[in-house]
Write a sequence for this structure.
């Protein structure tokens, strides 16, 4: 394709803003949405056209102009509230109604590995089959929303299920300072660095890989005990006591498909190296 397609990113927070900045730097015309006035300036500085968009019981902001694009990245995670399933489904229903009147051809939906049950073993993309088996209410909400978007005929949807996010402001060394013990120390972790999140989304867009579902976690899965021990040692922190015996309430997220389909090579394959680093 000779001309890069215009992109809108719904939700320019911890992940969305660096993604918008990266895509703008790659020559895409990028629009970004936020509910924060402070982010407006940051988006302008990043070469991103800013919009104030809020989706609650209705959509606030110029959603028609925001959706005047070819590709929409949806990056609004479920809110922490008791009615999270109904609320998030309602948000995306409003968005789908707005998309029906837009020229958007492709949607990239940022989901989470919380859609999988804690099966006590490895999970691949096809293992998320039952919303009621998801790891959390947020996971159930995401599963319903994934299916809603996939079933829409007017655009094609690719879903990326990220593991636990790590990077600037989200290093285990920062978490450990707010903890009193390491719970479930034998539980394997499923983490992904911000850099990899951004580059995987960019590769999907660059390769025009639509109508797909990808897991996205670092290929190595140390235990929680190993992760926080590495973070404590490298940052000069006191190691915390471990609490909880090994059990079967865990999962190991397999991300082979993103490697095989996209030819992607993880920038940060080892969570222990991430924990020892500063961001």
């Amino acid at each position: 394709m000779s001309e890069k397609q215009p992109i809108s990113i719904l939700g320019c927070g911890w992940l969305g803003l660096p993604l918008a900045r990266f895509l703008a730097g790659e020559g895409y015309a990028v629009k970004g949405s936020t509910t924060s006035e402070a982010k407006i300036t940051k988006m302008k500085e990043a070469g991103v056209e800013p919009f104030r968009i809020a989706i609650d019981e209705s959509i606030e902001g110029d959603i028609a102009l925001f959706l005047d694009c070819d590709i929409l990245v949806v990056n609004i995670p479920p809110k922490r509230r008791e009615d999270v399933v109904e609320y998030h489904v309602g948000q995306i229903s409003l968005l789908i109604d707005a998309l029906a009147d837009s020229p958007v051809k492709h949607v990239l939906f940022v989901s989470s590995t919380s859609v999988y049950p804690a099966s006590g073993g490895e999970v691949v993309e096809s293992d998320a089959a039952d919303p009621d088996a998801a790891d959390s209410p947020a996971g159930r909400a995401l599963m319903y929303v994934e299916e809603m978007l996939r079933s829409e005929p007017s655009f094609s949807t690719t879903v990326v299920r990220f593991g636990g996010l790590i990077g600037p402001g989200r290093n285990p060394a920062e978490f450990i300072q707010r903890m009193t013990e390491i719970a479930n120390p034998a539980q394997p972790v499923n983490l992904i660095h911000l850099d990899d999140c951004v580059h995987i989304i960019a590769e999907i867009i660059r390769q025009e890989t639509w109508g797909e579902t990808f897991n996205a976690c670092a290929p190595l899965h140390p235990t929680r005990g190993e992760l926080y021990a590495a973070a404590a040692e490298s940052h000069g922190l006191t190691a915390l006591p471990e609490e909880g015996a090994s059990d079967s309430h865990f999962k190991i997220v397999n991300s082979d498909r993103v490697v095989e389909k996209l030819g992607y090579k993880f920038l940060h394959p080892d969570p222990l190296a991430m924990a020892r680093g500063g961001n």
About this structure: The chain has a mean pLDDT of 93.
